[in-house]
Design goal:
This protein has 76 residues and is of the alpha+beta class. The chain has two helices and four strands, in the order αββββα. The model has no long low-confidence stretch (mean pLDDT 86).
Length: 76
């Protein structure tokens, strides 16, 4: 588990490190869910992105690709 120290500003905000955002596939204006679990703040993407095209869409597991990309792959 990676660990980086951040300071919470007077408005209660902090910046998520770029490496964490990349790992989660977060882009500007993406929604996240924030919850408390066993004394830790957990941040998760509210909507996953397709690993191939990057669109927010319901994904087909276990490949994490959207139906459109899956159809294109099958046609290939």
């Amino acid at each position: 588990m990676s660990e980086i120290r951040r300071t919470v500003d007077s408005m209660g905000r902090m910046v998520l490190p770029v490496d964490f955002r990349k790992e989660l596939g977060l882009l500007p204006n993406d929604d996240v869910t924030v919850c408390l679990e066993n004394g830790a703040i957990i941040v998760r993407p509210a909507c996953a992105r397709c690993k191939l095209c990057g669109k927010k869409a319901p994904l087909k597991m276990p490949f994490s690709v959207c139906a459109e990309c899956l159809t294109a792959l099958k046609a290939y």
